[in-house]
Structures are given as structure tokens and as C-alpha cells.
């Protein structure tokens, strides 16, 4: 039985989803990544006379945004959820690398028209090439490599894999593929089979959008919690409806504007990329909660950190949070310029991390001025949806923050999209 490994250039595949949707004739078309390995393996099996094959590993290499405008928080979290889904549900091996947006919006169309900034992706191509070569050099790791790529830069790697005695199949997209890969004569000697066009497999690869009812678990939800959706939450993942997601996105944006330090200012293109370091959890004590807005502050020995209910990990519900509760979290942004930092992945305290400072050891609470009550994020505008039968008009933003990004799914990277494919 032939062993197969897949190596997917995720950023290239996302960036070319528009071409696939145009070929299919439906702008909502998306590739089902759960089907992708088996469909491509079946194509290779046809070349081998329907021989039995075993897909032993599927690798995907891609990027994620760091130091971005807080308005894009929801889109970034969805991309990370997508990567988690690939690992947890489809057993992909996922390697992702950061792109520093230097405080800008993710989509080019959301930035200033005169802004010439282009996000630079690093390491993705090298990671794919080194992994494919590494396993080619290990005896019996795989017999056939399926490379889901389109960039000419991979040509030396494909040639080297074949020199090591492995067979190579290339899966690509028409009009987004290096001519050397598509050449039927294979003058470059990069493949052992005819190229597999994803354009010809659209029906087999289509992600089916099946509507079903789920209960919205957002504490800011209004009305009947049962809503129709095409979303399928992962195990232990809470489901929030689209309206609540938009409201939460506005709340987070307002919270970052009021309390968290801003990301780096635009115009600092010469700064080195932010390093990717292992996440470290630190303990802290919840010192202030705004239950009606779903956010609060955590005190630590190095400063305060803002967190939103969507920053909680499974096992800790916002309704269980209370002042003086000790929690652990990861630092998303450190405190700066007199403003609180930002926390993420807030969970119950692990005693092995040590005890956090108690609230009494902190400076006076800057949020507890009863004579001048502090507005919670978002209170300058009414973001709640109008209930059926409500004759009143919703209050208008004064001033309104920019609209939150519309991110209907995990795969919304167009040519000018979230993680633009730059070479």
C-alpha cells in the first residue's frame, strides 16, 4: 500500500478561492478542507490503477495576523479557529507564521487609499519545502507527496524530492499555476503524474452549507436564542449568532479604544517583524467587572489587563467570573501609555503558576470613582438590535466606530483580502 503525504500552501489556496468560485459560478463557493486529502488521494489512486493508498499525514502552512487594528479582531479569531478545526477535527498538521500589520486593517480596501503598506508573509514557503524534503529523506515516511501549490519557487524542492526517490503529484489551480508545473511534457522534471486541477474537482470538494438551528450562548443576545445558521461549532466551542458577533466586535473595539494601548502606528514599515514566541500563562486577579457589557480587568504585578467574555477559555463562563477571582491568562498586548494591556485565553487559576497579587496590594482602583462613573465601552451608542414591534429608532453612534468587518466564514481571503498573498 502506497503511503501519501499532502503538503498544502494554505495562503496560496486561500488567495485563489475567488478563482475557484468563479469557475464554479457561485461566489459563496468554498473548499471543504475535510474532503481535500481523500479527494486528492483518490485522484492519485486512479493514476496507479486504483491501487490502495494510505494518507499518513496532511500538512498545511499558512499565516496569521499580529499587531492589527482591533476592528479586525473577529476575523483574526475566526482564522485561528479555522486552524484549530483543521487540527482537532481533520487531524491536519498545521504550521502558521505571524504577519505584522503595524496597526493597520487587514483588508487593503479598509485602509487609507494612499497607504502603500503591503503585508509581508515570511517562512511559509520555506516551512513547506523543508518539511517535504525532511520526510522524503526518512525511509518509509511516504512514497508519494501531493503538493498543493502554484508558485514557481517550489520547483527546486520538487526536483530534489524526486531525486531522493519519491514520487510527486501536483494539485493546482488554472491561471494561478507556474507553467513549469502545468507543462504536459514536464521539461522541469517536477512531477510523476499529470497535474491535478482543483478546478476539475469543484463538486467533489464543495463545502456544503446546511442550515440548522443552534442556541446562541452570547450573554448579550436579545429575543429567541434559537437561530438558523450554517456554522458547526467545535467541541466545547460556544456559538454566537451573527448579530451578537457584530455587537461583541463593537464592544471589543470600544474597549480597546478606551483602555488598551493602540498597536504600532502606521508609517513604521522599517520596524523589524514582531517575533513569534511561545505563549506564557501568568496569574492575575479580576479587579473590575462590567457584567452588562461583558468585559472586565485583571490585575497583575506588572499592570492591568482588559479582557472580554470572548477571551475566556472553555471551563470558565463569564457568569462565573467575580471580582477577586484568581485567573490565568496569556498576554495579548502589554500595558502601555497609562492604559491597560489586553488578555486572551483567560481561564481558571492553575496553582502551579504561583499566586497572583491580591487586590489590596494594587494601587487605588482607577475605575471606582462613584462621583464620575466611567462609561463602559460602547455606551456612547446603542448597538442592540431593535426588537420586533419596537416603534422607536435605535440611537445612532455619536461618534460611531468604523463598521466591524463582515467575515461570513473562515475562508474569506480574496485577492485584496485578509491575508493577501504577496510574493
Describe it.
With 423 residues, this protein is an alpha/beta fold. The protein has 3 domains: 2-205, 3-Layer(aba) Sandwich (Rossmann fold); 212-255, no CATH class; 256-268 and 276-387, OB fold (Dihydrolipoamide Acetyltransferase, E2P) (Beta Barrel), CATH 2.40.50. The chain is 21% helix and 21% strand. The chain has helices at 10-15, 17-24, 36-47, 73-88, 124-136, 155-163, 179-182, 202-205, 242-258, and strands at 2-9, 53-66, 93-100, 144-148, 167-172, 196-197, 212-215, 226-229, 281-290, 295-300, 303-308, 326-333, 341-348. The chain has a 6-stranded parallel beta sheet, with helices on both faces. The protein has a 5-stranded mixed β-barrel with strand order 9-10-11-13-12. Helix 6 (155-163) links the parallel strand 4 and strand 5. Helix 5 runs parallel beside helix 6 (155-163). The longest helix is centred in the middle third of the chain and has 17 residues, at 242-258. It is elongated. It starts with a strand and ends in a 75-residue tail after the last strand. The model is unreliable at 266-277 and 356-423 (pLDDT under 50).
Amino acid at each position: 500500500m502506497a503511503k501519501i503525504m499532502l503538503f498544502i500552501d494554505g495562503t496560496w489556496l486561500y488567495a485563489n478561492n475567488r478563482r475557484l468560485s468563479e469557475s464554479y459560478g457561485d461566489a459563496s463557493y468554498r473548499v471543504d478542507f475535510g474532503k481535500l486529502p481523500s479527494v486528492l488521494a483518490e485522484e492519485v489512486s486512479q493514476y496507479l490503477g486504483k491501487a490502495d493508498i494510505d494518507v499518513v499525514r496532511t500538512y498545511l502552512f499558512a499565516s496569521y495576523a499580529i499587531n492589527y487594528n482591533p476592528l479586525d479582531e473577529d476575523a483574526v479569531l475566526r482564522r485561528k479557529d479555522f486552524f484549530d478545526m483543521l487540527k482537532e477535527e481533520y487531524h491536519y498538521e498545521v504550521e502558521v507564521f505571524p504577519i505584522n500589520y503595524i496597526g493597520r486593517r487587514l483588508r487593503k480596501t479598509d485602509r487609507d487609499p494612499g497607504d502603500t503598506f503591503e503585508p509581508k508573509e515570511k517562512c511559509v514557503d520555506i516551512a513547506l519545502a523543508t518539511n517535504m524534503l525532511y520526510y522524503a529523506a526518512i525511509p518509509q515516511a511516504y512514497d508519494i507527496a501531493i503538493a498543493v501549490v502554484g508558485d514557481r519557487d517550489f520547483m527546486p524542492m520538487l526536483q530534489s524530492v524526486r531525486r531522493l526517490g519519491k514520487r510527486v503529484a501536483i494539485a493546482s489551480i488554472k491561471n494561478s499555476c507556474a507553467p513549469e508545473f502545468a507543462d504536459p511534457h514536464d521539461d522541469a522534471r517536477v512531477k510523476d503524474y499529470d497535474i491535478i486541477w482543483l478546478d476539475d474537482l469543484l463538486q467533489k470538494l464543495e463545502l456544503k452549507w446546511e442550515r440548522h438551528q443552534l442556541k446562541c450562548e452570547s450573554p448579550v443576545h436579545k429575543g429567541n436564542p434559537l437561530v438558523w445558521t450554517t456554522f458547526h461549532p467545535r467541541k466545547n466551542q460556544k456559538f454566537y449568532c451573527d448579530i451578537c458577533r457584530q455587537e461583541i466586535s463593537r464592544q471589543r473595539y470600544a474597549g480597546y479604544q478606551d483602555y488598551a494601548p493602540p498597536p504600532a502606528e502606521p508609517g513604521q514599515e522599517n520596524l523589524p517583524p514582531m517575533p513569534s514566541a511561545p505563549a506564557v500563562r501568568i496569574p492575575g486577579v479580576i479587579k473590575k467587572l462590567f457584567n452588562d457589557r461583558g468585559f472586565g480587568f485583571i490585575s497583575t504585578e506588572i499592570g492591568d489587563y482588559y479582557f472580554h467574555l470572548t477571551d475566556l477559555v472553555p471551563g470558565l463562563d463569564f457568569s462565573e467570573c467575580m471580582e477577586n477571582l484568581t485567573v490565568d491568562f496569556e498576554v495579548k498586548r502589554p500595558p502601555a501609555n497609562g492604559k491597560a494591556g489586553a488578555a486572551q485565553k483567560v481561564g481558571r487559576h492553575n496553582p502551579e503558576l504561583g499566586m497572583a497579587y491580591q487586590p489590596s496590594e494594587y494601587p487605588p482602583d482607577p475605575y471606582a470613582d462613584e462621583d464620575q462613573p466611567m462609561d463602559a465601552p460602547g455606551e456612547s451608542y446603542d448597538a442592540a438590535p431593535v426588537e420586533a414591534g419596537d416603534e422607536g429608532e435605535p440611537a445612532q453612534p455619536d461618534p460611531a466606530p468604523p463598521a466591524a468587518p463582515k467575515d461570513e466564514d473562515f475562508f474569506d481571503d480574496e485577492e485584496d483580502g485578509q491575508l493577501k498573498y504577496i510574493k
